[in-house]
Automatic annotation (TrEMBL):
Coiled coil: none annotated. InterPro entries: Glyco_trans_1, Glyco_trans_4-like_N. It holds the Pfam family Glycos_transf_1. This is Glycosyltransferase family 4 protein. It comes from Solitalea agri.
Length: 358
């Protein structure tokens, strides 16, 4: 197929550090190329890909200190997309709803993967207005706030099989990986580690909007011999960080749409202890790839039960459910179905026009 992948411009594809959406777009793009598809990636100029790259901005906007209005760059990129649209069998957008007013007026086959949280009141009128735009969820739970959206399928994220490998967890520490923010509940991870007397290594990004939260609620908790704050890490460091961990702590307090870090842990054979929120029950097989818990006390008990988890089985589950090859095949099925529906609608519209002329 001739496929266009349209990525956000805030991070490069793949990102240098933290950046879930851009990372998924990269894995998907490279897997499509590997499978023999003709792929064009619309992304920042510092992106690295085996597909044809169309630069939407000179470099990732988060790293561009001269960038004041990131939306301006996205609309320039969208103009390029629609100028080239007839060169593709499908346009696959990963930029939320920015393109919706253009897409509903176009005659091109397109889908949009929604990567973020959808339980925001402001989104209700938006998806009621654009209820014909075909969208893909990254978990079934993600859909719940927007039942009126035109959901065509759920496709779970995937990562390349060779990115990580089965590891022993010989570091004997607990790991926290992600962002420092109220909904990620690093404070609970710290309390769990202290309660069981295990080291906790924290590899986390602090966004500007979360600096005040970090200073007031987290910083003082780091002054403890069991707690080590590493900061933001890249892909290479992540292999060692997750692979040597006894478990990943994922004590979230929000409707997590997916949670890439969970399948990254699985790929290393590292079990996850996660709070029962959002997509967690769809990703973790309780007692097989980790433990789904409801509170800190259950999380503490889960730490003591970690020897019951077979790390090799964690890796096998990852390969079967969350490899990039699985994700790519599932998206091809979506593309083919959406393309068929699009063709049917065009034929129906053409017949209607002919009848009106007659």
């Amino acid at each position: 197929m001739r496929i266009a992948q349209i990525a956000p411009l805030y991070e490069s594809t793949p990102p240098q550090f933290y950046g879930g959406t851009e990372r998924v777009v990269s894995y998907l793009t490279e897997e499509f190329v590997k499978q023999g598809h003709d792929v064009t990636l619309f992304a920042s100029g510092d992106s690295i890909t085996n597909a044809k790259l169309i630069k939407g901005s000179p470099k990732a906007l988060r790293l561009d200190i001269g960038c004041i209005d990131p939306l301006a760059h996205h609309f320039v990129m969208l103009q390029k997309v629609f100028e080239m649209a007839d060169q593709f069998d499908v346009l696959h957008f990963h930029i939320d709803y920015l393109h919706f007013p253009f897409s509903i007026r176009s005659d091109y086959c397109h889908i949009t993967t929604l990567h973020g949280r959808l339980d925001l009141p402001d989104l209700q009128p938006l998806y009621s207005t654009f209820d014909k735009v075909p969208v893909v969820s990254i978990s079934n739970h993600q859909r719940k706030p927007l039942l009126q959206a035109n959901w065509v399928d759920t496709v779970y994220h995937g990562i390349p099989h060779d990115l990580y490998s089965l590891n022993s967890g010989e570091g004997h520490y607990l790991a926290f990986l992600g962002r420092v923010s109220p909904e990620k509940r690093l404070d609970k991870a710290i309390e769990i580690a202290k309660a069981v007397g295990m080291r906790l290594k924290i590899a986390a990004k602090i966004d500007k909007v979360d600096i005040e939260y970090f200073n007031h609620h987290i910083r003082h908790m780091l002054d403890h011999p069991l707690i080590e704050f590493i900061g933001e890490i890249g892909e290479t460091e992540k292999k060692i960080f997750l692979g040597n961990a006894a478990a990943l702590l994922f004590p979230i307090d929000w409707p997590e749409p997916f949670g890439m870090v969970m399948i990254e842990a699985m790929a290393n054979g590292t079990p996850i202890i996660a709070f029962n929120k959002g997509s967690v029950p769809e990703i973790i097989d309780h007692g097989v790839t980790g433990f789904i818990v409801s509170n800190e006390q259950e999380a503490i008990e889960a730490v003591y039960n970690l020897p019951l988890i077979d790390r090799a089985e964690c890796r096998r589950v990852f390969e079967h459910r969350f490899g990039a090859d699985v994700m790519a095949r599932n998206y091809i099925k979506v593309y083919e179905r959406v393309a068929e529906d699009h063709c049917t609608q065009k034929n129906r519209a053409r017949k209607t026009s002919i009848k009106e002329i007659i």
